[in-house]
Design brief:
alpha/beta, Rossmann fold, 3 domains, six-stranded parallel beta sheet, elongated
Length: 669
Amino acid sequence: MSIPPREFDPKLVDKAVNTIQMLAADGVEKANSGHPGTPMALSAIAFEIWTRHLRYDPQDPAWPNRDRFVLSCGHASMLLYSMLHLSGHDLSLDDLKKFRQLGSKTPGHPESHMTPGVEVTTGPLGQGIATAVGMAASFKMLGARFNSDGQEISTSRVFGICSDGDVMEGISAEAGSLAGHLGLDNLIFFYDDNKITIDGETDLAFSEDVGARYEAYGWFVQRIDGHNHHEIKTALDKAVANKGRPSFIVARTHIGIGSPNKVDSHKAHGEPLGTSEIKLTKEAIGWPLEPTFFVPDDVRALFAERAKDNKAARAASDATLAAFKKKGGDKAALYEKLMKREVPANLLEELLKAAPTKDAATRVQSGLIEQKLAELVPSFVGGSADLNPSTKTYIEGAAALSKGEFSGRNIHFGIREHAMGAFVNGLALSNGFIPFGSTFLIFSDYMRPAIRIAALSHLQSIFVFTHDSVYLGEDGPTHQPVEHYWALRLIPNLDFVRPCDAMECAAAWTHALARKTGPTAIALTRQKTINVPRPAGFDPKLMLKGAYVLADSAGVPDLVIIATGSEVDVAISAKALLEKQGQKVRVVSAPCWTAFEREDAAYRDSVLPKNAKRVVIEIGRSEPWQGVVGTGLVIGLDTFGASAPDKDVQKHFGFTPEAVVEKIQKWFR
């Protein structure tokens, strides 16, 4: 349901805008840190978005069919906090007064897992608008599944504000291009064209016509005065009514507007106005000097009136949904599964049945298992950065997203890894889908900011990386990851999984689908690997513990070899050679080291006995493993790779079983 726009008294509107401006300025001043100028400049735009079209329920910030507001320029966070407070969300004046303080709900940049009403964690510029593209697509995808017979179940829109910094960062270009290609007409962004950056004026390094660029991407572009309420309202109404294209509204604003001495100055960007300038600003706009953080009663009443409209919109939406559910049928059942992101309790068992017994690259094995996963979990959607033939992640029998057609489950991201990571996060932030994106492991570098945001925000984003080592061979060092295993493991709350065979691929997917509190990265081989035999009575659930005893010694082991991925096979072969020499060797497969570290000490000690010497085999950087093995041996790769067939690369770098045994013997003596 759309909310009929209200028309407020112009003087009251000006008072409301001044309230937003001064809440932001006072918050930055009290913290003695932050960015006051941008919130001041954007107050009129934020006011019109929040009081004219944005649908929300402050008593239930997670209402599925709400609109989303994304402040991509997260440094202007006091603008968002002021709007959340005025709109009735669980953010008090005391919270605003604790801006940027330890333990507050008002951190320096908005974080979705900390503050009620914050939809997206923003800070790294460009991430917000790129994530918003994924969010807008998710609402289209839900609508394609359930909006029929006059019942509009998914009608959410995404409103946002971006800055010069956002549109300069390359990720926004990738995301903007994809949004235009898909025709996401439920995506509406204002561009804060204030012509100021930290260094000074934008023309120091930036002189393009941004609106023309977005027109070329396929967006509906308008140009307005960002302080003129008539122009803002007119542009908003046109954007909401626009069909077939996302909207981009170029708003010429003046940073620090209202400040007599810092308006249009980079000094209003990244530092408080200062006590004297705050006083002069309040005097210039006719604002009381005391109390600080002042909210007039009639401004509160204005937002309370708008809250009534939102309450009516929520009630109408809920009534439509209730009628849809009451009607029942396959669609209603599917809706429930999607909203719960339902995953079968016996998923591992089912995926193991689908695990191929033939030796193959783990990317191939994973791809076959993924087809069964897609059959069992309708929430599962995703795609690749133009690499489906290589990553093997295309969901067979399902359509792909395209302009005007959003019922599919496959997403062609194009060669846009930066945008893909943020798009996946946007899907994860929305309702109904468990998303993945896939590319080569080496290109996780392009996605690292989005992966980090997913981990920080506790998102169930899944990142599938193939070509996981120097064994990809002839493409050479530019495509061969060596530092990437640990570069990803070191991101807090990211689980990096490197399976060794089909069974561990099934466990990797089970792990990713069960994990609701953070992202999972799965690394898969290009080259063929063997399906490692398990001992009699092996419990497959052990694989979900992150590391487990794969092959044990006849008695108490005097040597434990820890390996991941394709090196597990090498470890098994090395064990056989060492045991011929009388050594007692245990092989531990460690597909997900972070999951293993979460297990209790008793389990960890049962897998890695404290008295046994330890060796790690992994064809990547070795230094971080020293903390695991102590005085033990790490057989790693601390150089770049080489262009050659995989078997030649393996021999050259000393990762054959024979070479590994020779290194262990020299160290063990």
